[in-house]
């Protein structure tokens, strides 16, 4: 199980923390090495069915095993050498890595609410995790490019344009004088010479209570989070605290 905590950051109704990724499924089974004491009679290996004559044996699942017989049913590694636990699922005995790969999950995509399999490449924004194909503005469906800034506001990912538009309307609702000022500006515009969508009133673009990041590593996997925090609050195309790996060839 991997779990880290970056503390909490709050603003308005926004609270963020580092993502915790947990192993889904049953509790791991202990694997222990013991001396082969024949005083109670010969012991039979649960794997091959033969007598265990070696000096040491493995005990797991309330059974005895040759060290060479207790192996992962997927990668064939010797479980007594790779750790002190094993997993069982669908009549398979598995090492931790293969159990996670086959049956584990990273969580649910914050956009489509579908399960994200373990080891799949993902994008992260604070405590939210997303499929690569789901990481887009949830207002206009704009797919982000390297260098684009995005905002996590009300648990939704927004591009910079839609975020600023939402901010303007929110400020107009709470500041009637600013709304009147904008109306005066609009009335003074030339009909054919100005773009109304380009209006930006400085007093309205206040510091948002939302989390934002700047993308710089589109398409790289983000798992698990590390503590490589950057002071400017921007990093890869995911959480500023996420660990990145080279994409598969």
TrEMBL record:
Gene3D superfamilies: Cysteine Rich Protein. CDD domains: LIM1_LMO1_LMO3 (cd09388), LIM2_dLMO (cd09390). Pfam families: LIM (PF00412). Residues 43-105, 107-169 form the LIM zinc-binding domain. The keyword Transmembrane does not apply. One of its GO terms (cellular component) is nucleus. One of its GO terms (biological process) is positive regulation of transcription by RNA polymerase II. This is LIM zinc-binding domain-containing protein. The lineage of its organism: Eukaryota, Metazoa, Ecdysozoa, Arthropoda, Hexapoda.
């Amino acid at each position: 199980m991997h779990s880290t905590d970056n503390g909490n950051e709050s603003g308005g109704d926004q609270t963020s923390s580092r993502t915790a990724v947990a192993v889904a499924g049953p509790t791991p089974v202990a694997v222990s090495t013991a001396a082969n004491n024949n005083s109670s009679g010969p012991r039979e290996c649960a794997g091959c069915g033969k007598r265990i004559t070696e000096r040491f044996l493995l005990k797991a699942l309330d059974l005895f095993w040759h060290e060479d017989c207790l192996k992962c049913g997927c990668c064939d590694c010797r479980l007594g050498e790779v750790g002190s636990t094993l997993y069982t699922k669908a009549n398979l005995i598995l090492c931790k890595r293969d159990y996670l790969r086959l049956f584990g999950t990273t969580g649910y995509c914050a956009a489509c609410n579908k399960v994200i399999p373990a080891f799949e490449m993902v994008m992260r924004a604070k405590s939210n995790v997303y499929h690569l194909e789901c990481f887009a503005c949830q207002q206009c469906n704009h797919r982000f490019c390297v260098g684009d800034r995005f905002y996590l506001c009300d648990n939704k990912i927004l591009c910079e344009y839609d975020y600023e538009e939402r901010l303007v309307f929110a400020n107009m609702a709470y500041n009637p004088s600013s709304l009147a000022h904008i109306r005066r500006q609009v009335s003074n515009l030339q009909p054919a010479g100005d773009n109304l969508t380009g209006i930006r009133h400085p007093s309205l673009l206040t510091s948002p209570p939302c989390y934002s990041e700047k993308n710089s590593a589109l398409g790289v996997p983000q798992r698990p989070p590390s503590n490589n925090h950057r002071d400017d609050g921007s990093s890869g195309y995911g959480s500023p605290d996420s660990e990145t790996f080279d994409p598969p060839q």
